[in-house]
């Protein structure tokens, strides 16, 4: 049966329109970051800058040493956190997908319970500062996101249950493989689409995380890139609003509107660069938990 050409054209046109609508804000963001501050004040935001300017990036990279160190911290946290997050998530999710696990339903409910109820900010802060003594340490940026992935555990459990054939596991048992061998040599290679999906989510959460740095980190040498850029922007706004003598003149010369845009561009570019490497598996992983015919 041939497809109706009018219908095919309409579908393609709709997807092109949605793609343009999704891409337009980012293009406007990039264009604004290269626009002169006064041009934005006079003419507003536009895809083609009224007057081209690199003032925003010049201001940011006047602190290039701090930015590069923060990039390094963020990259380290993202790589280590994503790797450990995938390991812990799969080590919990795979046993939960097996019917032979004792107390399987209770453990699954315990994981699900953490999605519905949390202790709140004060207990969260006290546990990591007074009990675990992680204030102003690199662990404060790593562990909180690592240990709050109940949704990812349930997602991977569904993937293991629906996508890993039980016959494959049983045949491995017959051949004398133990649980660790089955997990490492059979289950993990078959779970690449699910791992890529969860890995991308973990990567984004670690790269964009600013909240843990805000409440746990006061040491400037441990700022992630998100915390550093937000702190730089907050400092400029503070000087402008309070009109502090001497420093106010320097602050008023900072292109505050375009700096905001440049901060967003610098923060998002590494994620855009990383996405093509995940796309092949991410599309497959979108069907985790879907009903199969």
From TrEMBL:
Where in the cell is the protein located? Answer: Cell membrane
Q: Which CDD domains match?
A: TM_PBP2
Q: Which InterPro entries match?
A: MetI-like, MetI-like_sf
GO BP, one annotated term: transmembrane transport
The transmembrane segments are 6-31, 71-94, 106-128, 140-162, 182-203, 259-278
Protein family according to the UniProt entry: Belongs to the binding-protein-dependent transport system permease family.
Protein name in UniProt: Putative aldouronate transport system permease protein
Organism of origin is: Paenibacillus phyllosphaerae
